[in-house]
Amino acid sequence: MDVLERIDDAVKNNAVVVFMKGTPQLPQCGFSSRTAQALMGCGEEFAYVNVITDMEIFQNLPRYADWPTFPQVYVGGELIGGCDITLEMFESGELQTAIKAAVAAKADAPAEPDSAA
Known about the structure:
Layout: H1 3-12, E1 16-20, H2 30-40, E2 47-50, H3 55-64, E3 72-75, E4 78-81, H4 83-92, H5 94-108
Parallel strand pairs: 1-2
Antiparallel strand pairs: 1-3, 3-4
């Protein structure tokens, strides 16, 4: 699987995923820290990819959705943006609503058929 497929897999198989520098518990930059705090404040689980430990993703993620900076937050398979947009959405309540809807939709989605059959 090439790097863009790995990115696409992370985006499509998680209701919410953030590509960030570090981890939510140990962020490696202020923007990633503030973004992770906003996501945690929504009260739902989310996935993360530490771009520092995967240079291939670090180098290619900006091509995936034509967004040049980190962090990048995807909700329901769609890029919502980086730190500033995430914080604005959190403050307005839009982020909580979008995340709850994406988590609910993911829970209601039928399981992918096993292609190994």
